[in-house]
Amino acid sequence: MRRKVVTLLVIPLLFALLPGQKSTAEARWNTPSAQEPASGSVLCAPGVYPTAPDGCLPLGPSEYLTQLAQTGITLPITPLPAYPPGYDLNTLPYLYFKVTEKGAPVFSSEADAADNQNPINYLNPGELFVSYIDRVQTNQGIVYQLRSGAWIRGDGARLSVPVFQGKLFSSTPRTAFGWVLETIPIYAAPGLASPQTGRTLYRYNMVQIFDTAETNSEVWDMIRPDEWVEGRKVGAVFPRSAPPDGVPSDRWIEVNLQEQTLAVYDKGKLVFATLVSTGEEPFWTRPGVFQIQTKKPAEKMTKAYTPGDPDFYYIEDVPWTMYFDEDRALHGAYWHNFFGYWRSHGCVNLSVGDSHWLFNWANVGDYVYVYDPSGKTPTDPSLYGAGAP
pLDDT, tens digit, for every residue of 267-284? Predict the structure, then answer.
């Protein structure tokens, strides 16, 4: 008890003050102090700030969002105003057959074709595609009746028409976009030395392009924040807001030879875009401004035969053909699926569905603007013949 008693007696003495004295704490609270040092402005609420506001600092999340907005990205990312054309555009009234036999015989009857007897003609060796109306399994093998009425033996392959299709647009996109041309990884920054994100894109995947950068002479496309892909592996479209030089109309078709893409503008707005295949060296598609001269729902395309010519071709019922530069045409290509790569003898190859849509949209006299941003396609007229598929 003594220890407690002593404590009680001592504590009151500690707080006993002489008359007129103030406690140390009270004195400190009542004594004016120097002004609090400035600690900087407050951070702005997260948002996009094109110009710095007066009342806050646009740092942290706001700085990141503003940087993204400068490349056209808002979070969540605004999707492209795109939608697919009708799938029924891929339908054709033809069946196709690739002839693989060199110098294939042609017969006047099913029996002769089955027996391989009495040929009436021979197809010149080359790249041969015919359309047929009947396929018959005989004891001697398969024979086909061509639309001409003649018969051919089944030494070849029936074709499945590629069904890739581009996109229709309800308005002109604010950013560039494109289609992936092969299986590719996504990188966290431009350059093959950058770490990969673990995500992969596949052929014909569609991406938006918000920024480009060049690393080691290679162009890279930013498709999302901190996601980059090799630009050479994307067929890109860069939307325009006005007709290109030489096109005196707000309605035109545009072919980008470097990117292997086609874009369609109506009333100055992008309405359709897709991948194409244009002329491969030395059969380039000629740059320039042209107009559609003739439209044909189907066309036979062939080259004058010279024995031993490795480039000879004979292609029946090429669909949705529109000539714009001598024998160079926009048309469907049912015989390959290499859209996005140079492939033709000068024409602009589209998928069957895309060529059908374009054929329905276009009029004779519409402008076709062909250009190569890289400047690698020659423009010397003496290097160009009439053109081919």
Answer: 999 999 999 999 999 999
Q: What is the average pLDDT score of the chain? A: 88
Joined tokens for residue 187: 């990188």
Whether the Cβ atoms of residue 291 and residue 251 lie closer than 8 Å to each other: no
Retrieve residue 354's tokens.
Answer: 């895309």
Nearest partner of 361 among 339, 325, 330, judged by Cα: 330
pTM beyond 0.85: the answer is: no
Q: Positive or negative CA dihedral for 199, 202, 206, 209? A: positive
